[in-house]
Amino acid sequence: MVNAEHSVHGGAAAGTAGTAGTGFGAARAALWLVVAVLAVRQAAAVLRHPPGERLTDLETWIGENGVLHVTGSLYDTGRFTGTPFAGLVLKPLARSAEQSLGIAWTFGTLLLVVALGLVAARALPGRVSRRTGLLAAPVAISLLMLSLPVRNSFSLGQTSIIPVLLVLLGCFVARGERASGVLTGIGAALQPAILLFVPLLWLTGRKRAAVTTTGVFAAGTAVAWLAMPGDSWAYWFHHVAGAGLGERPDSLANQSLHGALLRIGLEGPLEVALFAVLAAAVVFLGLRRAVRYARDGQLLLAVALTGCVAIAVSPTAWQHQLLWVLPALVGRVGIRARDRLVWPAVVVLVMTLPGKMLLPNVGVLVPLRENAPLVAALAAACAVPFLTRTAPSFDKPVPNEYARPVPARWARIPLVPFWRRLFSRPNLLLEVLAIRVGFSVYTQIRLAATGGRETAEEHGRQILSVERALGIDIERWVNHTVVEVRWAESFFNFYYSSFHFLVPLAILGVLYARRPADYRWARSSLAFATVLALAGFWLYPLAPPRLMPGLGFIDTAHGPQDLTNPDYGALTSLTNQYAAMPSLHFGWSLWCGVVIVVLAPKGWMKLLGVLHPLFTVCAIVATANHWVLDAVGGAAVVGAGFGLTYLLAGPRKLLPRATAPAKADPFPEGEGRAGRVGTSGTSGTDDGAERRAPAG
Q1: Which of 318, 320, 324, 326 is nearest to 252 (CA)?
Q2: Nearest alpha-carbon partner for 339 in 238, 430, 436
Q3: Which end of the chain, N or C, is surrounded by fewer C-beta atoms within 10 Å?
Q4: Long-range contacts of 224-232 (CB under 8 A, 24+ apart)
Q5: Considering the entire predicted model, what is its pTM?
Q6: pLDDT tens digits for 411-432?
Q7: Is the model's pLDDT at 475 over the cut of 70?
Q8: Which of 448, 464, 500 lies closest to 634, judged by CA?
Q9: What's the alpha-carbon Rg for the chain, to the nearest Å?
Q10: What is the dihedral of CA 7, 8, 14, 20, to 10 degrees?
């Protein structure tokens, strides 16, 4: 966001300035509206539950039978995970909080999140224009509202936002080192891992703040020890500074190195020793990097890295304590403009989506999937090469080189001026994440768009009546004919189940490696077609022929189904059986065919491109998984996908940016010659550039 802004000082004309100011004001108002909507949504998600079912952690603390009311130790039940100092602070509030449990706490948490976003926006590193500073606050608050730690804090009623806010207030708002140390020390008394900020303060020259932090922490802990000696002994010694409280330490909720080691099967003295060695290495590397960036003037990044170290080396780091990863996205990575969004995108995805949406359930990826927040924290603390402010590309990254589309049929193409395409390959990590997250969202929407069995069967009867009127109701004849020919049944079952995902992914992979400009065009067309298909699933749930009672279809791919039971076999739990219109089986195969026919250099390749959708439409009809009109719907959304890409981005063919007319390409398109010239003096194999000759 900082890189996209120029200084507001300049000699722009009054009219231009007025127009820009109007647009800026509208954008700012829209962002604050988003903040308001997210705040209402978060509050409603908590308050719509009855008192006994909301803020479950807070209920166990200050509810009618909460641990703060009962006699004896706070830690007898293991439900209270705070420090004795936290219990001492909360106890006087227990009676009053019990009367308004939920409402006051929820709105108080909203205010804390807003304050956290405002402080973080104020602390952005580098030269930040006034506009960026004003837009940063609503963006930061929105990201916080959407993040898993904040949503977890809202639903459980946890206090983990408070220590983070105290540290940020101490570093960026408090005047004087003493006030800074007091705030940070209180945060450490509430969450002992905050003590890692003491060496950061000391090594960056804020020695008084470091000493004050240590003193306030010691004083708060001593007061709690005097007031509750039994609780203090239980917390600091019996439970090893809270490590034995809350959920099982090997649960997925514990995103620390200790939890990760326990999950991979290590335990006992070996695990403790390995954890100690790894924790020491992370503390050394992470704090050294944090000190470096603090001295460089990027104090918010330094604070975030120190918080990430605290997450990794704490015996337990529950999800609501992972907020420190989010401010690490202010670090700038990459000397090229096209790479600047990679790190922020990774942080936002990891902190807003569950691991199962980021990575598939593949054995080798399971450890990474289970520990995604921890991996992000470790990467930020120890590995990500953030730029220093003295780096030439800190404020001015190498700009992107955009291609020119060939003359279009309509003069106003592309309709969206900023939708410009690059010759070079997009970042592979971002593409993989986008494809995986997009597929996860597609799956969730497809599962949610059930519509009900009766509606789906009624729509099935409507489709059948239309096909009969048109004379194309051939599904039952094809289905029974194929069943009678064993090799045909086996072939179409195999084709139906094997190539739906494999062929599109293979085509995207080849285009990414060999034809990056065409990859962007093809990928966008496929994405638009899939989004339009989701709308069809949602608006028109349709039972496929195999699930229509009384019509005599044979489900060759899934086996016999009990049509008197709304749960048609095990497949129902994995996918929406009524997402038949349009058929993406045929739609994606048609997309593959079009792309191959347009781009393939050999005739036999183009023939395969024609045969793939032909075999697919035969397979979906023969296996009774789709009606013929479903294939028509699939063709319609694919055509619309290509059309939207053309309207927004212009024709597929591109030209390099040049003032002089491009010379004729000696290697006609489709011959696949390596090293084709993309920009002046640059090899196509080096930067992925491709030269396109004008159409016609």
Answers
A1: 318
A2: 430
A3: C
A4: 224/83, 224/84, 224/85, 224/87, 224/88, 224/189, 225/84, 227/84, 227/88, 228/74, 228/84, 228/87, 228/88, 230/73, 231/73, 231/74, 231/75, 231/84, 231/87, 232/84
A5: 0.78
A6: 777 877 777 777 778 888 888 8
A7: yes
A8: 500
A9: 30
A10: 100
